Structure formats: C-alpha cells, structure tokens
C-alpha cells in the first residue's frame, strides 16, 4: 500500500525488453501524480509484482517468453486474486499490432483497453490517468471490432442479473455498449450527467462488472450488443 503518497497513481511496467521498460519509466516518472513502483520482464514476474506492490495500473506487454500477457492478465483477474486484493488494479495492454487477438482475449479477461507500443508519450500518460479514473482507453469502434468474432455461440442465455436492471438502467447500459459518454447518454435520455453516472455504477454493481469496458464485453458475450 502507498500511505506516503495516497493520491499517486502507482504503475507496474511489464515488458521483456529492458530498454523499452526504461524509456517508459522515464516518461511516467516525469509526470506529476504518477510513479512507477516496479517492473517485470515476463508474465510470472508480473503476477508476483501485482501481489507484492499493489499497483493501480499495469502496463502489460502481450508477447513475452515463459508466460505471456494474456495468461498474466487471466491470473491477475482470477476470482481468488481479485478477492485477495485490498485495492483494485487496472490493466492496459501494450501491443505491436492494432486489433490483436491477444489484446481481445485480455480485454475479455478484464483489461481496460490497449495501446500500440508506438503511441506518443502524451497519449500514454493520458491512458494511465484515464484507466485509473475507470474509463476505457480504446475507441468504441475498435472495441466492437475486437469483440466481434470472439463469441460464436448461436444460443446464449441472458443472466438473471440483467433482468434485475430497471428500464432506465438498461437504457444507460445500451448507451455504454454503443460507446457513448455519460454526457452523451444524459443528452439522449434527458437526464443529468450525475444521474447517468449513478446508473452506470448501479449497472456495474448488479452485473458484478469492474468497468465500462466489461459492460461492452458482457453485452457481446450474451448477445445483447
């Protein structure tokens, strides 16, 4: 835990290239309110570091020897690991390829979005802050493209938890799935933005989901998109 700087965003860097890790660390440590608390060179080290360091955000490379980023993400978001943590952790996938299948799998497992390794320093910093605030770091159309083709079940059962949503909550759910911001949902539904935020929180709680990205994954997984 970080008692000395409680408002600081604690970041863990995971990549098998030492030079890449060093460069990203220089960029992030130069930003106010962000600190790199550790690095890892493969997925196994990442899983151990998450337990030991309690980072807020993990920048996770997908393609690494030994254990790759997909399996590391799976273990980080396993029910046992989530239950054991005192504070939540967010994962941002780092990939060389746009719309990588591994990135899609990691997002299904709980990651909050992906960044290309060639992204600008400004976008990288913004992504860390955005994910820490509970939002996604990929365009809605990219998320839709990633999810399409991931689910090939002709018959799906809508969970009972979805039936517990009120009509207004389902309206907000649909807006999130379409990639609308809280402000855009508010304008379309003639609601206040704070009211929409409350409904989003209620949807997440009722469906047992972590963030807006997982709402989209849930919708595709259960034929609700």
Automatic annotation (TrEMBL):
According to the entry, every stretch annotated as the HTH luxR-type domain falls at 158-223
Which CDD domains does the protein's record reference?
Answer: LuxR_C_like (cd06170), REC_NarL-like (cd17535)
Q: What's the superkingdom here? A: Bacteria
Record PTM 4-aspartylphosphate, positions in chain:
61
A Pfam family recorded for this sequence:
Response_reg
Q: Which Gene3D superfamilies match?
A: 3.40.50.2300
Q: What keywords does the record list, in alphabetical order?
A: DNA-binding, Phosphoprotein, Transcription, Transcription regulation
Enumerate the spans annotated as Response regulatory domain: 10-132
Protein name stated in the entry: Response regulator
Fetch the SUPFAM superfamilies from UniProt. C-terminal effector domain of the bipartite response regulators, CheY-like
Keyword Nucleus attributed: no
Q: Which PROSITE patterns match?
A: HTH_LUXR_2, RESPONSE_REGULATORY
